[in-house]
Design goal:
- This protein folds into two domains: 262 residues, MetI-like fold (Orthogonal Bundle), CATH 1.10.3720.10; 217 residues, Orthogonal Bundle (MetI-like fold).
- It is 70% helix and 2% strand.
- It has 25 helices and six strands.
- The chain has a two-stranded antiparallel ribbon.
Length: 565
């Protein structure tokens, strides 16, 4: 007999809780999206595609759409070219130091491209460090335009260097699941080299690759911060950002946001339909020898040379930001001519940066508290209760992972304009809510993993002894899953501290600037702006690195589930 604790009856308390969640998600997730759709498709109460027609006829918007699509495609291709050899080397070969190399390859994830772009401009500018070095040693006679196309390739390279770990992890997972006996059978039938990869290996690892490719494409397609730093402004994200100031006079922004939503959700739908609808499983078998084999001396040398080269190139943004943050003078020289740590102290004394750090701590702290409460309640409902709409609640909770930050932020600005939540009056409430909604999936998945790992026997015993569901949750369940909750909270807090799109769009007043908006503002200061911005970026990178280490230590392999839609 199942206990009432796990029954499907809608008790009064459960009805109140579900009602609250419906109101929360309805007001701060579904309503902003509905508002954007309504204003994009309806003119004076009549359905119309006028705005989309004007959008496609405007030369600037046409270029922006094409540039964004090209950015997404180029970043995906470059990331694939980087990740495939890495995954092949680490999955198919065993060698000394393999674990250390695997860890080094993930380091680029700790610095958002938005921050890395600051250092990359210093290193690869027309008279930056790389060109000056090549001029000094006589390799070139005139400076090279490394980021040709007005910064296009700069954005692509930054995105690829930041996102290749995600692609690599997905490809490696797919490649590790390929049955080596199938490849051996193909070899016996004459297939080898690229033909073997194209006809057997790649189709079997396609689910993992496709999952990584979609993440990379959407990230590059909707990234706002990196194009702004590189001043590559003819992209969809920057156009939406520029239209915030005249939403009511120029409704083209609604059409652009809907276009982004359609592309994003269509890709996720296709991934579920295309990958989920096809059968990739291999025949059941007993023990199978691993596909990996010991690397020979030459192979190990090639692997080390290749992977260390990739790591070295990927760490250029980190190195350049670090150098910029400790530079007292760096102009027309390969390396800074003078060094100082003064900027690390000044960011706590300067009015803009000190206030921004304080604001980010407060905003991220409040949003994390919201995530903790909602995350525990939602995870509890999903693992310990049965009720109508359970799958829908899970899907809605994960929806923010599929939506770019600029889409939700645009919906907040437009949907709550003229209300007490108007960001032009006081942006703090919507900043907290946006951070909380965007990072709630991490908290839910982390708590969900903890509840799944814990046996319900102790909870059943508590309920049999007369304890209420709340008492059981507070005194029995919570202490046993506290490590998962701490890990999820740290991750939610750290990502909120470095949120880019929401911060750039919603923080409309300087007094309320968080760290990322302050970094963007500092880049406009000619004298010390880039140096102070780099110092703040380094602090953010250290924070995010520590949070990922702690979360990975607690959750282990389950950490990847936090990022699945």
């Amino acid at each position: 007999m199942p206990l009432r604790y796990f029954s499907s009856d809608l008790t009064p308390g459960l009805k109140v809780l579900l009602g609250f969640l419906v109101l929360f998600f309805g007001a701060f997730l579904l309503y902003p999206l509905f508002y954007v759709f309504a204003n994009a498709f309806y003119t004076d109460g009549t359905f119309s595609l006028t705005f989309f027609g004007l959008l496609l006829q405007n030369p600037v918007q046409q270029r922006s759409l094409l540039n964004s699509l090209e950015l997404g495609i180029a970043a995906t291709i470059v990331t694939t070219l980087i990740s495939l050899p890495i995954a092949h080397a680490l999955v198919r070969y065993d060698f000394r130091g393999k674990g250390i190399l695997s860890g080094l390859l993930l380091i680029p994830m700790v610095m958002p491209p938005f921050v890395g772009a600051i250092g990359m401009k210093q290193m690869f500018a027309r008279f930056g460090s790389i060109n000056l070095l090549l001029l000094e040693i006589g390799i070139i006679d005139t400076p090279i335009d490394w980021f040709g196309g007005g910064g296009f390739w700069g954005v692509v390279i930054l995105e690829a260097l930041h996102l290749y770990p995600i692609m690599y992890l997905n490809i490696a997972a797919g490649l590790a699941n390929v049955d080596p006996s199938l490849e051996e059978s193909a070899r016996n039938m004459g297939a080898s080299g690229f033909r073997l990869f194209r006809t057997v290996t790649f189709p079997l690892m396609l689910p993992g690759y496709f999952a990584g490719a979609i993440i990379v494409f959407i990230w590059a397609f909707t990234d706002l911060g990196t194009p702004l730093i590189f001043e590559f402004r003819e992209v969809v994200a920057v156009q939406i950002f520029n239209m915030m100031s005249d939403l009511h006079e120029n409704p083209m922004g609604y059409a652009l946001v809907v276009f982004v939503m359609i592309v994003t959700l269509a890709l996720f739908y296709l991934s579920k339909k295309f990958i989920g609808g096809r059968r990739y499983e291999m025949m059941g078998r007993g023990h199978v020898v691993s596909a990996s084999r010991p690397a020979t001396g030459v192979e190990m040398a090639v692997i080390y040379a290749g992977l260390l080269s990739i790591v070295g190139i990927a760490l250029i943004p980190h190195f350049s930001v670090l150098l910029t943050s400790v530079s007292d003078r760096w102009f027309m020289t390969v390396l800074p001519s003078e060094y100082t740590t003064a900027y690390y102290g000044s960011i706590f004394d300067h009015e803009l940066t000190a206030r921004a750090i304080k604001n980010s701590l407060i905003l991220s702290g409040l949003s994390t508290l919201v995530d903790i409460v909602l995350g525990i309640l939602i995870a509890y409902l999903l693992t310990r209760r049965r009720f109508p709409g359970k799958d829908l609640l899970d899907a809605v909770t994960m929806l923010p992972l599929a939506l770019p930050g600029l889409v939700l932020a645009f919906g907040y600005v437009a949907g709550f304009s003229g209300t007490f939540l108007d960001v032009r009056i006081w942006p703090v409430p919507l900043l907290v809510i946006s951070y909380a909604v965007r990072r709630l999936p991490y908290m839910v998945r982390s708590a969900y993993a903890g509840f799944q790992q814990m046996s319900v026997a102790m909870e059943e015993a508590s309920m049999n002894m007369g304890a209420s569901p709340f008492t059981t949750l507070w005194r029995i369940t919570m202490p046993l899953v506290i490590a998962n909750l701490v890990a999820g909270a740290i991750l939610a807090f750290s990502f909120a501290m470095l949120e880019v799109s929401d911060s750039l769009i919603l923080a409309t007043k300087e007094d309320d600037y968080p760290i990322t908006k302050a970094i963007y503002a500092l880049m406009g200061r000619i004298a010390d702006g880039p140096y102070m911005a780099s110092a703040m970026g380094m602090l953010g990178m250290v924070l995010l690195a520590c949070s990922l280490l702690v979360t990975g230590k607690v959750l282990g392999k389950k950490m990847g589930e936090l990022f699945k839609v």
